[in-house]
Specification:
Radius of gyration: 29 Å
CATH architecture of the domain at 279-315 and 374-506: Sandwich
Number of helices: 6
Distance between the termini: 80 Å
Structural class: mainly beta
CATH superfamily of the domain at 279-315 and 374-506: Exo-inulinase, domain 1
Helix content: under 10%
Strand content: 25-35%
CATH topology of the domain at 279-315 and 374-506: Jelly Rolls
Shape: globular
Length: about 575
């Protein structure tokens, strides 16, 4: 059977369906409506932008600030300028007129800087919301929430930003700058003392469980109640063991350790004015074993001998005596005869962000600025020849902790009580080359990085918080002269090693706010209970943070989300840790 193929008839152009010109106005309106709806949905359910107004999270996040470059050492750092922009609590604005460098402690006047540093807005952050609709925050997350006492003020949202550190059902303790928690203490609502008074009262309105200001009413955090204090003391005597039902130390994640480091001393940024007046902070322990590139202000150290030799750090906060008491007085010319250093002292909690001076004020430090901080981070660049050995050492109390790099391995060890090797892991420090080394002793855990990559020791680098505290400490803070003053940080070498780019940082230090048993007592803890569906939130700038230590807990219903990203200013763009 045969057939012939046929082709469809060509369309008649005259019968083509007419088209209408696009309605540009309608398309524009539809696009705008779509974008607005999308933004509202994102804001409602996914993410929202916030601006940081204050310095309670400094220097992790900035509020209003001026960026100062120290005219003496060149260190760049932020100084709080909130009162100049927004005014103090009374509404009065005061110019920022003076600063103190956290690196060299030089006290200078803002008006002498050229060009004058402008006020900069606080960090603008993106807040992720869905995580809280599913499971809530993790410990240490930076969170945004509505202020419980006054979520709005004159129709303006009162949003706070802190770290979530205490969770429902926990009793949290602040002790020597660190955090401790337990879930083993119960607070029955009907428990009464021998006089029939409720031991753990509850408010008539459950929405008031967050309240924690004893000056304005009941404190439902039950601060420093006897059961908690007895358990904390028992836990401390036992060495804060894990898994025994007592208090255990809270340890940061790697990202949080790095985000919370604060400068102690950058050895590449030394004030020239002090070269002939103040001895160097880093110095060879034995003469002739290390050769520096400068006798008075060495930045680079070269070691060649076959024995183990050390360079040591001593914390010498400078006193620049020519700074006037009144920041408006004329600034006298620098006189080297007026520059001096105090004797070596323990590494302290000083933060340049907090130590600006407003007009009419005088430079001063608070007792919290002078707290001893034993959690340190040491880093350097080491040029090592094959077969050589380099050691980073950090002291704390009666112990010194070491990370020894040799033959492709890093070994953790300690001296003092419990001395000996703790753990060993392979690493890339083996052949001749340059390596960036970092060693940290934070939250009673030892950390090691090589070329910015963490060497995973798991829990092998953990130790008991009680094991470093001397029984006869010269101060109840727990430091010792032979370690924390004479050699808080050290670098040792055996064989050909060159060390440069040395930096020493410290961890943030959580300060206490509850009345102490006696004025000089720092050996006890502040203890707070966290009710279910509530959080205890703390600022990284603990010495000057209005947080859960002062006004109470944060109800889950007022949590807005997790701050995840700084998107402005440009120089601060990055993820929040």
């Amino acid at each position: 059977m045969t057939g012939t193929a046929t082709t469809p008839a060509a369309k008649d152009p005259s019968k083509k369906k007419p088209t209408h010109p696009p309605d540009r106005t309608r398309e524009a309106i539809e696009t705008i409506v779509f974008v607005v709806v999308l933004v509202l949905l994102l804001k409602l359910f996914v993410t929202e932008a916030f601006v940081i107004p204050t310095g309670s999270m400094a220097e992790t996040l900035y509020g209003y600030q001026k960026i100062i470059t120290c005219p003496k050492c060149g260190h760049e750092f932020p100084v709080n300028s909130h009162d100049e922009v927004e005014g103090n609590p009374a509404g009065h604005k005061h110019r920022l007129v003076a600063f103190t460098c956290p690196n060299c402690r030089y006290r200078g006047r803002v008006g002498t800087l050229t060009p004058p540093p402008p006020n900069r807005t606080g960090d603008r952050v993106l807040v992720l919301k869905p995580i809280y609709h599913v499971r809530g925050p993790d410990r240490g997350d930076v969170v945004v929430f509505k202020y419980p006492e006054k979520p709005q003020d004159n129709h303006v949202a009162q949003n706070y930003i802190k770290r979530a550190e205490g969770f429902g059902g926990e009793t949290l303790g602040i002790h020597r700058g660190d955090l401790y928690t337990t879930r083993s203490i119960k607070y029955p609502p009907d428990a009464r003392d021998e006089y029939g008074n409720l031991l753990y009262p509850r408010p008539d309105n459950p929405a008031d469980l967050w309240r924690g200001d004893p000056d304005r009413g009941p404190d439902y955090r039950y601060p420093n109640n006897k059961r908690a204090m007895d358990l904390f003391d028992a836990s401390r005597r036992a060495g804060f063991p894990v898994g025994k039902g007592g208090f255990e130390i809270v340890r940061k994640t790697e990202a949080q350790v790095l985000a919370c480091q604060r400068i102690v001393w950058d050895n590449d940024q030394q004030p020239k004015d002090l070269a002939e007046v103040v001895p160097p902070r880093w110095y060879p322990e034995a003469e002739g074993k290390w050769n520096g590139d400068s006798p008075r202000q060495p930045r680079l150290f070269v070691h060649k001998s076959e024995g183990m030799d050390w360079i040591r750090y001593r914390h010498l906060p400078m006193v620049w005596k020519n700074y006037p008491a009144d920041p408006f007085d004329p600034m006298p010319q620098t006189d080297l005869g007026e520059l001096a250093a105090q004797p070596a002292r323990p590494v302290d909690n000083f933060l340049g962000y907090n130590n600006g001076v407003s007009e009419g004020g005088i430079p001063k430090t608070s007792a919290d600025d002078e707290r001893w901080v034993g959690d340190l981070l040491l880093e350097c660049e080491a040029e090592i020849e094959t077969g050589a050995e380099v050691v980073l050492e950090l002291s704390k109390g009666v112990s010194r902790f070491r990370a020894t790099f040799a033959d492709g391995r890093v070994v953790l060890s300690r001296t003092g009580p419990g001395e000996g090797e703790l753990a060993a892991r392979p690493c890339k420090v083996k052949d001749t080359g340059k390596y960036k080394l970092r060693f940290a002793n934070v939250d009673c855990r030892l950390w090691v990085w090589v070329n910015d990559r963490l060497i995973d020791f798991g829990t092998d680098g953990d130790y008991s918080p009680a094991s470093t505290v001397p029984p006869d400490a010269i101060d109840s803070e727990g430091y010792t002269r032979e370690n924390d003053i004479a050699a808080p940080a050290s670098i040792g070498a055996k064989g050909p090693v060159t060390v440069r780019a040395i930096k020493l940082h410290r961890d943030i230090y959580y300060t206490r706010t509850l009345p102490t048993r006696d004025a000089g007592d720092h050996s006890h803890a502040d203890l707070y209970y966290v009710h279910p569906d509530h959080y205890l939130c703390l600022g990284d700038n603990s010495a000057q943070s209005s947080d859960s230590r002062k006004w109470g807990l944060v109800p889950d219903r007022l949590m807005l989300g997790k701050a995840v990203f700084v998107f402005f200013p440009i120089g601060r763009v990055g993820f929040i840790k």
